[in-house]
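User:
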Amino acid sequence: MKYFILAFKNWNKFKGRANRSEFWYFTLFYFIIGTIFYYIDLSFLGYNPMDPTSIGVSQSIFGLLVLIPSLSVTVRRLHDVNKSGWNFLWIFTIIGVFYVLYLNIIKGNNEDNSYGPPSKI
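Assistant: Predicted structure:
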């Protein structure tokens, strides 16, 4: 949970680096909390996934709150593998999704790179 909170503390930092643990623990807690909000919408707020006019209110609010921190941690993760944050735009292509996923999976540089020293968490 500390990495999830750390992403919110560093929501406006698009420079620097984020190691694999920081990125993947953030992603894990994002998924868990998003799933909880999905079931809250489903059970208590009348969300019907089969109705196109129905919206999951709490899940949508959570998604908006986490949007900028998730972009920030992803850009910093790309910096950790010595790639520009602009590589994130590859997700708008079918093959690019797998490329960005690959970049998020591989180990970052242990030495200084173009984006600064390794993160020390």
